[in-house]
Amino acid sequence: MRIDIVTLFPGMLEAPLAESILGRARARGLVDIRVHDLREHAEGRHRVTDEPPFGGGGGMILKPEPLAAVIDALRPAGSSVRVILLGPAGRRFTQAVAHELAREPRLVLVCGRYEGVDERVSETLVDEELSIGDYVLTGGEPAALVVADAVTRLLPGVLGDENAAGHDSFARGLLEHPQYTRPEVFRGVGVPEVLRSGDHGRIARWRQLMSLWRTWQRRPDLLETADLTPEEQKWLDGFRQGRTASDFLD
Ligand code: ADE
Questions:
Q1: Which of 111, 117, 137, 150 could form a disulfide with 7 if both were Cys (CB 3.0 to 4.6 A apart)?
Q2: Are 66 and 41 in contact (CB under 8 A)?
């Protein structure tokens, strides 16, 4: 997959994209991520990219022409490129949207800035607008990183089998179970006995139960659409009647 990111601040993206799993995926050729400086597409000696809004009010608005120049260059006529503007007024980005985007051959992520982007960019140049949550960032750069990260880790070969994306929180619509590593006792708190038992069946059942319990406790909204086994449904009915996870442990 190829991901092109358009920004006025390439430095906000380059270092994070060179590190860790994303950096390795790029080095191995599993994803081709390119960062484009919007200013290079602005005309004139001063390469102006923003202007005050018509109608008054504070702040600066990104002008449409430099964005049009870079988007047109990245999307030749007839090509299959999905162009996404990052902004707080967009559709909510979720794990389901990450899976949807991971199926595309090419994405262009456009980072909004300042007080906004000329509305004609949304109307005529981009396919859709995405928001990473109900809060306002100073610009779309952190959001573009979030989208690039969540999408890249779903691409074949990026994660090893061990921590493949199938085990994730949200893979089945539930939060992940708690995890522990050494030491066995930390500040007086031990590791649940079952995890040290070596009994893979019991461990799997404990993890399934704790995943459901944690979701019930922290994100009950997710249970409205989660895909539950008959046993999980029975546990959930128990939680609704006031039982806790420990009531179901053997
Ligand atoms: N730009 C500013 N705020 C944003 C948000 N919540 N999501 C995506 N892009 C943004």
A1: 111
A2: yes
134 lines ligand 1 (CB under 6 A): no
In the residue annotation, 221 being an active-site residue is answered as no
Q: Ligand 1 atom closest to Cα of 133?
A: 6
Which amino acid, 36? H
Long-range contacts of 55-63 (CB under 8 A, 24+ apart): 57/115, 58/115, 59/114, 59/115, 59/116, 60/113, 60/114, 60/115, 61/114, 61/115, 61/116, 61/117, 61/118, 62/38, 62/112, 62/113, 62/114, 62/116, 62/117, 62/118, 62/121, 63/118
In this prediction the pTM is 0.94
Contact 159, 27 (CB under 8 A): no
Q: Would you place residue 78 in the very low, low, confident or very high pLDDT band (cuts 50, 70, 90)?
A: confident
- Containing 170, the helix (H) or strand (E) segment is none
Residue 137: CB within 6 Å of ligand 1? yes
What is the number of residues in the chain?
A: 250
